[in-house]
Design brief:
Elements (H helix, E strand, L loop, with lengths): L1 H21 L4 H18 L11 H9 L6 H14 L2 H13 L5 H16 L3 H18 L4 H12 L9 H10 L3 H29 L23 H20 L1 H9 L7 H26 L6 H25 L5 H18 L5 H34 L2 H10 L4 H16 L5 H7 L1 H10 L4 H13 L9 H9 L5 E2 L6 E2 L4 H24 L2 H4 L79
Antiparallel strand pairs: 1-2
Helix pairs in contact: 1-2, 2-16, 3-16, 4-15, 4-16, 5-6, 5-7, 5-14, 6-7, 6-8, 6-10, 6-14, 7-8, 7-22, 8-22, 8-23, 9-10, 9-19, 9-21, 10-21, 10-23, 11-13, 11-14, 13-14, 14-15, 16-19, 17-20, 21-23
Length: 605
């Protein structure tokens, strides 16, 4: 019995965990129970030392003291306050008016607003429910396919999983032992490419299936000029002008910085982009404010509306992500600034009250406790799993896979994709990533790239039937039965559950395409990261300061037997002479004896 347990303990432990999870027992307690149970069995059989769990309290305190995890409640609070402040409604209404006149415009507006909400609220439930309540009735009213409308809303809502500041990226960075800032930088380009794929899909439908994504009729366009024109020409000219200002500022940013600092400065590309976008945004806001206050009338109503609605969330994005990318703030500090900025925005809208704060703090506390308890449970599980040589078992499992690194990546992503049908992304992150990370590191895989790849894959878990959370969020607010529209007074068909499932399929395929693209082109992630500094140990210089009264070991020397300081009075040769003097007259200045030296001039030991 003992021999059988010793030979198959990791398999038995992992299998027991799966059984616990399938019974519906809470994940955190399933992990902790499996860890403690197999730990005690191992100690009873004499396979593990009785002192196994003595270090466990220190591990738990280490989790609680982890500053990186503080970013989770901060970003959650920011998102919940903004969601309750009415920002989503204003964005959807305004952006819908901009894109509505073209075919597929409402779907494009949903994708654009979904990306903005992802970068500000970062909460999938809030984004999907907000857009489901506001945009879905409008899209159904004007003839959108229920499947396409549902798919656009659910897919755009899940962008919060890959667009920084994503909670998933924070958790994955912590589990992989990598910087959250690097994870954000690595996810930036893949996130924008995924948004671009969504846009191309809608544009393709508008060209080849226009009946599925009709344009907004003229009577539904609310922002018009006194002469009846749409004012879109003014918006286009103003957008081009602001873009030119931002690009010009970015081109001369290095020269401006050099002039201010009085020395040649070559800013990084990501710093230049963030500063240029910030400059263009501030210019647009100031120009729109001057136009409104002075009554010049140079900008149309829709232009002013777009500027005043889009600038606050964009400013918050630059405040949070910009400071993180520039290295001014850590992700935790960026999250704190985001939470304060979110409350300021809610106050400016007149929506900040005790009810909103109470709701935001309660929901933040619930999510934070949920994450913390799962992390503590996974720590207990991995503690025992490691003691039973579980990592070696996992390594041997993947050793047998064909294809080396590519085979490992394909197998892992396929496994995570199918697990996403049944298990929440937090559970996958806390259970599987600690097991996979050592294998990936041993194969020479960049862990930041690996983390972004897994985050892109985990995003699909929100869209895959039968347990995709985004699908259930939309189902909870979408009309299930036929109803009479309050504007057109016509009968609108309800949204069936199968419509929601069918609508998610094209977007799941696009996410799988992105996973394949990231495997094929790692540079999409690593391009934005800081280059690793290669250190040649043979060129390291160690300068040891000399001491008085001949007590130093030699100044500017890395070799024993070199000259001591001048005050030491040694007659030994200087390091420049090879460090081989007789060293006899220096008193305590330098160790005498073998004066050949352990190194050479200006080199390390």
């Amino acid at each position: 019995m003992i021999e059988l347990f010793a030979a198959h303990a990791p398999e038995l432990m992992f299998g027991s965990l799966l059984i616990f999870l399938l019974t519906g027992f809470p994940v955190a307690f399933s992990l902790a129970a499996c860890g403690l149970l197999f730990g005690f069995i191992g100690m009873e059989f004499g396979l593990l030392p009785p002192s196994l769990f003595q270090a466990l309290p220190l591990r738990v305190f280490g989790i609680i003291q982890n500053d990186t995890l503080l970013a989770i409640p901060f970003f959650t609070l920011m998102g919940l306050v903004l969601e309750r402040s009415g920002m989503a409604e204003e964005l959807l209404d305004t952006v819908g008016q901009v894109f509505g006149p073209i075919r597929g415009g409402l779907a494009l507006a949903v994708i654009f607003v979904g990306a903005l909400l992802a970068a500000t609220t970062g909460v999938v439930a809030a984004a999907v429910i907000s857009m489901g309540l506001i945009s879905l009735p409008i899209m159904l009213r004007y003839g959108y396919s229920p499947a396409i409308a549902s798919g656009a809303i659910t897919a755009s809502g899940t962008l919060a999983q890959i667009v920084p500041p994503s909670l998933v990226l924070i958790v994955i960075a912590d589990q992989l032992g990598r910087s959250v800032g690097d994870m954000y930088k690595g996810a930036f380009i893949p996130a924008f490419i995924l948004i671009g794929l969504y846009v191309l899909f809608i544009v393709g439908l508008a060209i080849f299936k226009p009946a599925m994504v009709p344009a907004l009729p003229p009577e539904a366009r609310t922002y018009r000029e006194p002469d009846g024109s749409s004012g879109m020409r003014s918006l286009a000219v103003f957008t081009v002008f602001v873009t030119i200002v931002a690009v010009t500022f970015g081109m001369y940013y290095g020269e401006i910085l050099s002039a201010l600092k009085g020395a040649e400065v070559d800013p990084a590309a990501d710093e230049t982009i963030v500063v240029a976008l910030t400059g263009g945004t501030l210019f647009a806001f100031v120009a729109a404010m001057i136009n409104k206050v002075s009554g010049l009338g140079l900008l149309s109503r829709i232009t002013e509306r777009v500027t005043f609605v889009l600038i606050p969330p964009l400013a918050l994005i630059f405040l949070v992500l910009g400071t993180i990318f520039l290295g001014v703030a850590t992700p935790t500090e960026g999250g704190a600034m985001g939470a304060v900025g979110g409350m300021i925005m809610a106050y400016a809208r007149g929506k900040l009250d005790m009810a909103l704060l109470k709701h935001g703090l309660e929901a933040t506390a619930r999510l934070s406790c949920f994450v913390l308890f799962i992390l503590i449970g996974s720590t207990i599980f991995s503690f025992t799993f490691t003691a039973l040589d579980g990592p070696i078992w996992v390594e041997h499992l993947f050793d047998k896979l064909p294809g080396g690194e590519i085979g490992f990546l394909v197998f892992v992503n396929t496994m995570i994709f199918f697990l996403g049908f049944f298990i929440d992304f937090f559970e996958i992150a806390f259970i599987l990533i600690p097991l996979l990370a050592p294998v990936a590191d041993k194969l020479g895989i960049d862990l930041v790239w690996f983390g972004v790849l897994l985050a892109m894959n985990l995003q699909t878990s929100f869209l895959t039937p039968p347990f995709g959370f985004a699908l259930f969020y939309l189902r909870s607010v979408a009309p299930a039965k036929d109803y009479i529209d309050r504007i057109t007074k016509g009968r609108i068909a309800g949204v069936r559950t199968m419509d929601i499932y069918r609508g998610s399929i094209p977007f799941v395929i696009m996410q799988i395409v992105m996973v394949v693209a990231l495997i094929a082109f790692p540079g999409l992630v690593t391009f934005t990261l800081d280059k690793k500094v290669e250190v040649d140990l043979d060129t390291i210089e160690i300068n040891v300061p000399g001491g008085g009264d001949g007590g130093g070991w030699g100044q500017q020397s890395d070799s024993w037997g070199g000259s001591p300081t001048e005050s030491g009075g040694s007659e030994g040769a200087s390091p420049a002479d090879g460090g081989t003097g007789d060293g006899a007259a220096g008193g305590d200045a330098a160790p005498a004896g073998n004066n050949e030296g352990f190194g050479t001039t200006q080199r390390g030991w």
